[in-house]
Amino acid sequence: MSSQLRVSVYCSSSPSISQELIDLAYELGKGIGERGWDLVWGGGSISMMGAVARGARDHGGKTIGVIPSKLLNHEFEDRDATEMFIVKDMRERKGKLEELADAFIALPGGIGTLEEFFEIWVGRYLKFHNKPIVVCDSIGAYLPLQAALDHLTKLNLMKSGQSELISWTTTVSDALNALESH
Questions:
Q1: Which residue, among 32, 61, 34, 83, has the nearest Cα to 11 in the 3D structure?
Q2: What average pLDDT does the chain have?
Q3: Higher pLDDT, 97 or 71
Q4: Are 65 and 93 in contact (CB under 8 A)?
Q5: What is each CA distance from 148 to 108, 110, 151, 152, 164, in whole angstroms?
Q6: What percent of the chain stands above pLDDT 70?
């Protein structure tokens, strides 16, 4: 991966999550910045979204946000972003994140995070892109999801090779190393 890598991070904007997850997001942003990479993210300043951006900026990374106009006040636009794209809706946001990023990391999150994660995963499987996708789950939030995916594979509902397109990690260093080794 190039030194100018742009990493898109999918994560929660929920204001009522644990400090452990806020710290995880900050640590990921820090690792992105320390490696000389830039962050591409949903443009929010709260919760994990804000923490990942602060971590990247505090450690030399540029932060490139993409936020729908309707969410400017809901997710509290990060006014310290290096660059901010204001888009029409969520579909445009996801497309712009994919366009700007060279790689993707999903942290624990809710349905928005999962929607972005699954869409980018399907796009890779269908060869719309060949960008690495990593899940960094230090708290086991996605263990039931992994079990469900294994179950779908056993039922032959998931195709051969789909699971291998994702790197599942539990630490920030492993997640960042997985991007580097792609």
A1: 32
A2: 95
A3: 97
A4: no
A5: 16, 16, 5, 6, 15
A6: 97
CA dist 73 and 64 (Å) reads 18
Q: How far is C-alpha 47 from the geometric centre of its chain's CA atoms?
A: 14
The answer to whether 133 and 121 have CB atoms below 8 angstroms apart is: yes
**Domain ranges across the chain:** 6-181
6-181: CATH, from 3.30.1490.20, 3.90.1150.100, 3.40.50.450, 3.30.1340.30: 3.40.50.450
Do 65 and 29 contact (CB within 8 A), yes or no? no
> pLDDT per residue over 153-175, tens digit each?
999 999 888 999 999 999 999 99
User: Radius of gyration over alpha carbons of the chain, in Å?
Assistant: 15
